[in-house]
């Protein structure tokens, strides 16, 4: 109850920020002379909190590389950002995060540009109401939300480590997860259960993929520490963000329900705040393998915090990728 009241009131936590804090507010402390040196890749940036994250980072002077499945939507976003920030440096490249081959092409294109890479924000998300498969024959939510970001991160990790070594600037990876990871029980954490159309549950599949995002951050942070790399990875819960809630019927009950719901939902800028805080704010320097909500470090589920489960999932994921025999993928043991 105390946590809920704190959330509703927007009371600041130890970081000085809370549920009502916006992405612009958490990045106001960032020096333009510093951020203008940075390059960030943001997946899922053509809409929602991804678009807001891109807008705010560009406003702070960060060079943006935006991977997008729909380049027309990406071009519209670029135009909108440059209207507000004419100096913004924005590069658009095509990607389909559910496709290993597409991820490889994107990484090859990005690396050929010879740019540094300081920030990687794994933000894109997919929710499937019915059972769908990627071209690599994986359940679509699992493929997009987790496998795609796992592969993208692994293929760009050496570049991030190299950039950090050359510049002395800490690299930061942000996995956008969700509080729904708490819904997954230990005995139900099995992606093969998602493959029966009669038993498929889109919410459960989504929750499992978001749990996997946290486990990925936990295991990779352990590996980065062991490697003594100046790169950190953390996971964030952005909150439940306002979308187009419509009220078809007027009246006391529907208006009251809408009013109550609106108090629990965040604006897009509030939803992007935790991502921007972890990606850019100096307070999170040196923080690695943690889970954030409302711009404060908080507890994730016991399963999400299980180091053995995290390592097991990482090994299983690497095996899935290696079975596809893609050349040029560097994954450490």
Automatic annotation (TrEMBL):
UniProt-recorded name of the protein: Short-chain dehydrogenase
Pfam families: adh_short
PANTHER family: RETINOL DEHYDROGENASE, SHORT-CHAIN DEHYDROGENASE TIC 32, CHLOROPLASTIC-LIKE
Keywords recorded for this protein, A-Z: Oxidoreductase
Family: Belongs to the short-chain dehydrogenases/reductases (SDR) family.
Domain of life: Eukaryota
SUPFAM superfamilies associated with the record: NAD(P)-binding Rossmann-fold domains (SSF51735)
């Amino acid at each position: 109850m105390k946590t809920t009241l704190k959330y509703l009131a927007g009371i600041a936590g130890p970081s000085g920020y809370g549920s009502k804090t916006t992405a612009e507010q958490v990045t106001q402390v960032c020096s333009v002379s510093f951020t203008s040196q940075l390059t960030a890749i943001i997946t899922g940036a053509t809409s929602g909190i991804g678009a807001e994250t891109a807008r705010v980072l560009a406003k702070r002077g960060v060079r943006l590389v935006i991977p997008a499945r729909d380049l027309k939507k990406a071009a519209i976003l670029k135009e909108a950002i440059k209207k507000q920030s004419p100096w913004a440096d924005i590069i658009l490249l095509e990607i389909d995060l559910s496709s290993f081959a597409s991820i490889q092409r994107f990484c090859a294109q990005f690396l050929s540009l010879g740019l540094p890479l300081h920030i990687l924000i794994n933000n894109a998300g997919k929710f499937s109401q019915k059972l769908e498969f990627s071209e690599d024959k994986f359940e679509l939510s699992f493929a997009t939300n987790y496998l795609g970001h796992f592969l993208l991160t692994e293929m760009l990790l050496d570049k991030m480590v190299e950039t950090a070594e050359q510049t002395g600037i800490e690299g930061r990876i942000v996995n956008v997860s969700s509080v729904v990871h708490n819904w997954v029980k230990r005995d139900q954490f099995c992606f093969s259960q998602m493959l029966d159309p009669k038993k498929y549950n889109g919410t459960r599949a989504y929750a499992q993929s978001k749990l996997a995002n946290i486990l990925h951050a936990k295991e990779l942070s352990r590996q980065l520490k062991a490697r003594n790399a100046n790169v950190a990875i953390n996971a964030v819960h952005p909150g439940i963000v306002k979308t187009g809630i419509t009220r078809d019927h007027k009246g006391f009950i529907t208006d009251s329900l809408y009013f109550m719901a609106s108090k629990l939902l965040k604006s897009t800028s509030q939803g992007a705040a935790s991502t921007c805080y972890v990606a850019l704010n100096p307070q999170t320097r040196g923080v690695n393998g943690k889970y954030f909500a409302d711009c404060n470090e908080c507890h994730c589920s016991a399963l999400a915090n299980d180091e053995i489960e995290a390592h097991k999932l990482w090994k299983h994921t690497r095996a899935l990728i290696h079975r596809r025999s893609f050349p040029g993928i560097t994954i450490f043991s």
